[in-house]
Amino acid sequence: MFTGIVEELGEVVAVEQLGDSPPATAGGAPSRSARFRLRGPLVTEGAKHGDSIAVNGVCLTVVEHADGEFTADVMAETLNRSSLGALAPGSRVNLERPMALGGRLGGHLVQGHVDGTGTIVERTPGEHWEVVKIALPDGLGRYVVEKGSITVDGVSLTVVDAADDHFTVSLIPTTLDLTTLGIKKPGDPVNLEVDVLAKYVERLLGHSSRTSGEPVA
Q1: Are 71 and 63 in contact (CB under 8 A)?
Q2: pLDDT of 127
Q3: Cβ–Cβ under 8 Å, residues 121 and 95
Q4: Residue 133's closest CA among 198, 188, 174, 90?
Q5: pLDDT tens digits for range 64-91
């Protein structure tokens, strides 16, 4: 579990394309997987094999680590559902270690399970902050509410305005300076994770309606 408070701006050192993975469905075409090597001296302090590190909001498992770098195997499912497949050596990435029980929850509860990829539509600079408009993929708009929380490339943000097909966020100088959101351009993809509590509520309400015989919205 993460908080969406980025600890370190890391860098992709190498990307190794691995062999074909089994198809996700019977009769489907095999998919590709990859092994990433990333630099993050802070997040690798005390790291062990099997630990989790969020990379642009995607929870990955440490395979090896040494000299401030770590490797992680990325399955086809992750490449298909996130923007990690577009990363190349030299790409900057947001890094975060899992939250420690008993610590402060600075952002909101984040699983590191990407729900889809959005696209930066426009950026509007202000005197002390910058407003960013992000297009939503189909089906995610119902989970995004004004003043609610959303994770964008692993960064916990508060929604300013919400619509069915887009939302806006305001980025303070610290976020612009210390995360990749400061260098993303219109047209760039971003990983999105909506608040998991909203998905549980939707599921529970749907189950309740079905068992009571009421129509499901």
Answers
A1: yes
A2: 80
A3: no
A4: 188
A5: 999 999 999 999 889 989 999 999 999 9
Phi and psi torsions of 80, nearest 5°: -75, -30
Find all residues with CB under 8 Å of 17, minimum gap 6, and list them. 32, 34
Q: Which of 191, 193, 208 is nearest to 87 (CA)?
A: 191
Hey, what are 30's tokens? 């095999």
Both tokens of residue 58? 């995607």
Cβ proximity of 131 and 159 under 8 Å: no
Give the per-residue SS3 of 11-40.
Answer: EEEEEEEEEEECCCCCCCCCEEEEEEEEEC
- When pLDDT is cut at 50, 70 and 90, the band that residue 216 belongs to is very low
* Cα(86)–Cα(145) distance, integer angstroms: 29
From the CB of residue 187, how many other CB atoms can be counted at a distance below 10 Å?
Answer: 9
Q: pLDDT for 90-111, tens place per residue?
A: 999 999 999 887 777 777 888 8
> Is 106 buried (19+), middle (13-18) or exposed (0-12) by CB count in 10 A?
exposed
